[in-house]
Amino acid sequence: MHLNGTFGADILYVSKEQAMFNRIILIGNLTKDVELRHTPGGTPIATIPVAVNSKYKQGDEMKEEVLFINCVVFGRQAESCGQYLSKGNPVLVEGRLRENKWEKDGVQKSRCEVIASTVRFLPKKQSDAQTSAAPSNSYDEVPQEVGDLEPF
Fold this sequence. Notes:
The protein is mainly beta. The protein has helices at residues 75-84, 128-132, and strands spanning 2-6, 9-13, 24-30, 35-38, 44-58, 61-74, 90-104, 107-121, 145-147. The strands form two sheets. A five-stranded mixed β-barrel has the order 3-5-6-8-7.
C-alpha cells in the first residue's frame, strides 16, 4: 500500500490483495461518563459513548442528525480516558469499525463500534461569559493524545 498526497488530495495505491480499508475519524461529545473495566489479565478497557452531529439541507430546510457511537479504548489510553473524560467532553477518536453480532429472543442483532487507536481530548466550547473571563482549561495537565494498540 502506498499513500501519496498532493494539494490535500490523497491517492491510495493498493494491490488486489489489499483492496480493503477500515478507518474512521469522529469528533463529538461524550454522552455519559467513561465506563472503565479490566480484562481477567488486567488490561484496562474503556467504553466511550460519543454523539456526533451532522447538519444537512433538505429542500429549503436545515436538518440535524445525531449518531450515537460507542468507542472502545485499551491499555494506558483507556486509563487516561477514564481519569480525565466525563459526560459532555469533546473528543476526536480515530480507529476502525467493528461489528458485534448477537442473538436475543431468536432475533439476530448487530451494532457497530469503533476500536480506537487514538483519542484526543479537545477543549470545551466557551460561552461568551467565559470568553471574556480568564481562560480556564479543565485539561491543564492532560496529554492531548495518547496512543495504544489493541492488546489482542
